[in-house]
Design goal:
Blueprint (H helix, E strand, L loop, with lengths): L1 H8 L16 E8 L2 E2 L3 E4 L10 H5 L2 E3 L2 E4 L7 E3 L1 H14 L7 H14 L11 E10 L12 E10 L7 E6 L16 H16 L4 E5 L7 E4 L3 E6 L2 E5 L9 H12 L3 E5 L3 H10 L2 E8 L3 E10 L2 E4 L6 H14 L10 E3 L7
Helix pairs in contact: 3-4
The structure holds pyridoxal-5'-phosphate.
Length: 351
């Protein structure tokens, strides 16, 4: 363990950290074989050796999570709702015909890595250490059946807040990211691969996020490529209901709870894109924002659709801003967490 701690201690954080580019020099690794998980251990960060016929490379048997360790105003680093990430990870795994990762193993990976890398967690507000647990099928076999062997990793990335600032969103009218009855509820690589061509075209047109519509119900809003959507009308918060195509965001569920406690009415419902755009035009819809672990809450300045732009009048809007401040204050340990969302990571590693 001493050698791994030395790797961390010798690691210099650059002046500009960005999001998702800088990797901590240690990772957690466990293997699944014959129906049994190994205990898992911290190892130096480095390339993974895979058989070229490994199932993940051909049939995309892979799932992942995104979560953060914060260390701003708390005594120790703290995780935000990590057990929810574990539950969603295992729901994704079930969907992809992969084994469950026991909560104990998942949490051991996440907390051991956070602990040993604690000095790499940037301490300024908004920054954190992004944690990426992931699992994939390793069996070398080209038949289309579930892998018999798997590896589970957690890697860590000291990070600034993702995409802080205004978001310019464009509606995708032609392609679908996920299908009804498909993988939208799972956090699996294929969903993100399916979004990339549209994202590329969106950026070429001067926007920075794609708004996806449902593949089965014409005009129904699903979500953004990596975030859930909220809109505000008459001081009421509306967000698309969990319809089987949307990822059930942990930030989304926290916002629904927080908003009620801040005195806002919240509604989870089918939101039709045409009626939303009409409500923006008429001035009834006053703000929109995206939410997710990486960005927390990001205001949307424009929704563009079929050559027309619909600007939101309040950017950032007061509702999104109030929720952002309340949520980040809990995540960063600046206020009491009455929801039980925070899990402290005590010092475990012997140095
Ligand atoms: C497709 C998608 N939707 C929504 C979210 C937001 O989920 P969470 O708040 O749990 O990060 C994410 C990010 O994980 C995502 O990838």
């Amino acid at each position: 363990m001493g050698d791994l701690q030395t790797l961390v201690d010798n690691f210099q954080l650059p002046d500009t950290i960005g999001f998702g580019r800088l990797m901590a020099p240690v990772m957690f690794r466990a293997e699944y074989c014959d129906g049994i998980w190994s205990a898992g251990q911290l190892v130096p960060y480095g390339p993974i050796s895979l058989d070229p016929a490994a199932k993940v490379l051909h049939y995309a048997q892979e799932v992942f999570e995104g979560m953060k360790a914060y260390w701003v105003d708390s005594e120790t680093p703290q995780l935000f709702r990590p057990v929810e990430n574990c539950k969603r990870f295992n729901n994704s795994a079930e969907f992809m015909c992969m084994p469950q990762v026991p909560e104990e193993l998942f949490m051991s990976g996440v907390t051991q890595l956070t602990d040993i890398c604690r000095n790499l967690i940037p301490r300024n507000s908004g920054a954190s250490m992004y944690l990426r647990p992931f699992m994939f099928g390793t069996q070398a076999d080209l038949t289309i059946t579930a892998s018999s062997s798997y590896e589970f990793y957690v890697i860590a990335s000291p990070a600034e807040i993702y995409h802080a600032g205004e978001m310019r969103v464009i509606v995708e009218r032609h392609r679908s990211r996920t299908a009804a009855g498909g993988m939208g509820v799972a956090k699996t690589g294929g969903n993100y691969a399916a979004s990339m061509q549209s994202s590329k075209e969106c950026m070429q047109q001067g926007y920075n996020q794609v708004l996806w519509l449902n593949s089965a119900v014409a005009g129904q809003i699903d979500e953004l490529s990596g975030m859930n959507l909220f809109v505000v009308m008459d001081d009421e918060l509306h967000t698309p209901e969990l319809n089987g195509s949307i990822l059930p965001g942990i930030t989304r569920s926290a916002i629904l709870e927080l908003a009620k406690d801040l005195g806002y009415k919240v509604r989870e419902r089918n939101i039709q894109i045409d009626s939303l755009l009409a409500l923006i035009e008429s001035g009834t819809c006053t703000e929109a924002f995206a939410c997710g672990t990486a960005a927390v809450i990001s205001p949307i300045s424009i929704i563009a659709d079929q050559g027309k732009e619909y600007p939101l009048p309040k950017v950032p809007g007061p509702v999104g801003q109030a929720l952002y401040e309340s949520l980040l204050a809990i995540q960063e340990g600046r206020v009491e967490d009455k929801y039980g969302w925070i899990q402290a990571v005590e010092r475990q590693v012997q140095v």
